[in-house]
Amino acid sequence: MNTLQVGDNAPQFSLNNQAGETISLKDVLTKGPVLVYFYPKASTPGCTVQAQGLRDIKAQLDGLNVTVLGISPDPVAKLAKFSDKQQLNFALLSDEDHAVADGFGVWGQKQFMGKIYDGIHRLSFVVGTNGKVSHVLNKFKTKDHHEVVLATLAD
Questions:
Q1: Is 73 helix (H, G, I), strand (E, B) or coil?
Q2: pLDDT of residue 60
Q3: Which of 19, 69, 103, 122 has the fewest CB atoms found within 10 Å of its own CB?
Q4: How do residues 100-149 score in pLDDT, each as one tens digit?
Q5: For residue 149, which phi and psi values (nearest 5 degrees)?
Q6: Active site residue 47
Q7: Cβ neighbours of residue 112 under 8 Å, at least 6 residues apart?
Q8: CB-based contacts of 12: which residues, under 8 Å, 6+ apart?
């Protein structure tokens, strides 16, 4: 796993969101910085808490012109259910072949309850309007991810 670092160019991508619409990083960056956060699986406890935290700080993120894009390998239909149930107010993107996760260096070997498998590592990136990674967030708990995001954007 070769995770992107601060100063690296973010891979350009276009993925379908929970409504089946294509969202392109290039287009979203014209509005301001983008928080690209990778999460393993919609509707699981940790991923739900993380998404709810971001949902609840949407006004503050809007004030900073920051767009949130959540990316997982879930299919669009599962993202739609997750978004509706949690009343999420940002885009969830489907990366079923994990090509974008590979590009950001967050797809790799994981271990859970003695089982080894490949999957998404929970990391977040702030991508500046210049297309470069300005922050890598890798030290947080799902319940305070949103606080770490705000603190990072404040400096």
A1: coil
A2: 96
A3: 19
A4: 999 999 999 988 888 898 889 999 999 999 999 999 999 999 999 999 99
A5: -60, -50
A6: yes
A7: none
A8: 24, 25, 26, 131
């030290």: which residue's tokens? 139
Sign of the alpha-carbon dihedral angle for 37, 40, 43, 46: negative
CA 10 to CA 84: how far, in whole Å?
A: 29
Q: How many CB atoms lie within 10 A of CB 28?
A: 18
Give whole-number Cα distances, 75 to 16, 43, 67, 72, 145, in Å: 9, 12, 21, 8, 24
* Selected catalytic residue, list 10, 47, 61, 123: 47
